[in-house]
Predict the 3D structure of the following.
Amino acid sequence: MNKLPCSTIPFMLALLAACQRQQSPEQLQSWIAQTRQLAEHDAATPQPAPMTTPFQPLPYLMDGSTTPFGAQRSDPLLTQQRPPQRGPRQPLEDFALEALQLMGSLSRATQHNALILAGSTLYRVRVGDYLGPHFGQVKDISAQGLVLQELRRNANGSWDEQQVLLPFPGGQR
């Protein structure tokens, strides 16, 4: 069986619809001729493309005061890949904060220490120690938990400081 081209299917459907109305053969022949003439005319007439506006690039004058990608910051850490190293890496810098569990604290006079479980090892942490992958430095140990000051790289390539609280489980120590 031969397949009909897609363009003849609407024509055949219209023909069947016209036959159902019980019109005379002359009226049907006239309607077919008009439909064919309109279809040929529409196919021969090209449709105009929609109007578009031409692209106008904005000029950029390189005077050194700004960059085309945003405001320039006078951040001393902007050109550095890492923040300045403050001594040898500490063991807890290799762990993500989610892998560390704050277990308790020890206090002697004014010195507070936190006990952190990383893997199967218990570590004692003091204010000033570093932990986590984002250069987090312990700033405070309190009844709520351990406060870290982290350095995170932003979209401009400079470093932003962010405080993070590592809480005690259940809000107790």
Q: What stands out?
A: The longest strand covers residues 100-108. Residues 8-43 form one domain. The mean pLDDT is 77. Helices lie at 8-20, 25-44.
